[in-house]
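Page 42, continued from yesterday. The earlier attempt failed because a stray header line got pasted into the input along with the sequence. Redoing it now with the clean sequence only.
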Amino acid sequence: MIEIDHLTKRYGSHTALSDLSLTVEPGQIYGFLGPNGAGKSTTMNIMTGCLAATEGTVRIDGYDIFEEPAKAKALIGYLPEQPPVYPDMTPLEYLDFVARAKGVDRSARQSQLDRAMEVTQIQGVKDRLIKNLSKGYKQRVGIAQALLGEPHVIILDEPTVGLDPIQIIEIRDLIQALGEEHTVILSSHILSEVRAVCRQIMILSRGRLVASDTPDNLEKLFAGTATLELTIKGGEEAVRAALAPFAEKLTCQPEEEGRLRVCLESQPSDELSERVFYACAGANLPILRMDQKKASLEDVFLELTAADPEQTEERTEPEAETDEAEEGGEEP
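This time it went through. Structure tokens are written below.
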């Protein structure tokens, strides 16, 4: 669906993207991660034809975004971090304007407007001025405009910035619904959100792609050692004898009432918890508690991007990324 080949973007001596290559397959929800200054917004702006590249190519369903921009852009719906809405228009007026600007045929225009408003659930506020809507509804209007023209790919840059917890859940559900009919690329700093919504994750660091896989596979790949924390009723000698075959490192700390707090480190294995359970059962050592620690998406992200120096880009540069959220209006 999207093929990025040796993409580079420079601003004078600053390299925002360095020889970036990646492929986005159809029918998936992709999470696009990276610290500020890693090149996420730069990449998305180039993918959508909003920014020129220094080197490299971007193809959308076979169309080169630089050589055939009209055909390539027609396949993409884009929501920037700040929704491109006109505050003195109503959502209906604004969406009609966007549909005309995108060249949606008159015969299909009304049906596309109705569908976009239905999917994003903004029918109830379609005749209110956008400036009077909450941040959550402004985001919904922004997503609705991205749906016009029936694009194959939806690109969302920080769609939940500045939203309250209820609005975040609503937008998350909306993104999952969009993923049933579109390829979705989602940029977010909220890793739990990406973990819950995305089926594939791409991590950028200093303008380079450093990881691309499913969340589960990334967590397994960076798991290192598996750690079990247990509370076992029994003597330390018996516990060590039972667990020694599985442990690279084993620590025991006595607790009250003949209990031991045990920390067992071993090579990652799907059967580790089961094997420990049966070993303790066979030795008549009741397990009162068992927790298995594993690498989280946060751990993976930090390990892959820890070497990044703190980068502060000028706000005047086109690719500047921001965590600042605009102030929302009143709830409708």
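Notes: DSSP finds eleven helices and 14 strands in the chain.
Reminder to self: strip header lines before submitting.
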